Amino acid sequence: MNEPVAAIDLHREPIRSTALLSRYAESTVWLARYMERIENLARIIDVTETFTRTGQAEDGWRSIVQINADSERFYERYERAEHQSMVSFYVLDRDSPTSIATIINLARENARTLRPLISTEMWTHINMFHKWVRELTPNDIRPGQLSRLCARLKQECQTHNGITEGTFFRDQGWYFYVIGKHLERGDQITRLVDIKYHTLLPKVAAVGSPVDMSQWSAVLRSAAAYHAYRRVMPRALTPASVAGFLLLNNAFPRSLVLTLRHVYGALGQLRTDYGLRAGMAAQERIDELRAALADQTIEEIILRGLHEFLDWAQQQIHAVHDDVAAGFWPQPVVAAAAPAAEQPATLPPMTMEQRPGEQIMNGMRQSLPPLRSSTGEE
């Protein structure tokens, strides 16, 4: 008779495995952030186009520029925030660092770096997605075609998430992917709530009107939250209840509190399973933000200043990313040039200095979305 196999406690001591290269950790975080950013942008464009077409959102297109802190860059090239200029800027413009065309290219470059880690299915899908976006034309973003385009963008991102969930090996790389994905979600949900809450606050006569209700429904749809919200609050639909759900609900996948829990948990797993303690500074910062959310109701946050709180939350999320970057992947140092008289005949190439919240790929500097000032502008 065979002897029973003793159960193994994987958490008794750190798992002994090959250390993940720092460049793989960096690329995994950015791949997750970029794919999440594409889906979020597609949702906002789709909902905004619907409401501007029906005349129910006066400043709908301008709010996308505000959410992404792109006002200076956008208005250097376009006079007005309207359908054609806005969709061209955010979908097709390869010179804009925040366009889908640029983001999917950066995602693919990170996936290329990760070829030894990611599955063949992940790599194949990203390649196909990239090729499809590269072949888009102005005809594909016409008003009659835009909704179909956004649906395809969302579907491709969800397909990527499904393939990643089902095929990405559960080692250190997986936890870095979780960190990037949920940091991006937390950042995007704070931007959405901040801008939409203040731009959609109705006049007294409009409170509870069909237009008021439909606009707040649109905010929920922008975050893929409408059906989840209606399960929890089938009757109430107010600015405060929507903001509270998107920030404080413990079960909604894109809420701020849940995204922070996922990031905190992934950092904890890296520490306990792999002995990687470089994430402790990020965990301490998340602890502070989670405590601030747990100690207040949405009514108290609004009373004390919703914009100010969300501004601070965004700064904390960016700082968490910087803490992770500083802890897990080293930063290149700028080579110092020798005095003119002492320069050798052949100088080594100068390297670009990379700050924690940035990534440099193929000579292109890509950073986190810029933060807005306390006035709501860049």
TrEMBL record:
Q: Where does the DUF403 domain start and stop, copy by copy?
A: 20-328
Top-level division of the source organism's lineage: Bacteria
Q: What is this protein called?
A: Alpha-E domain-containing protein
Signal peptide segment: none
Region named Disordered = 358-378
Q: To which species is this protein native?
A: Rhizosaccharibacter radicis
Cross-referenced Pfam families: Alpha-E (PF04168)
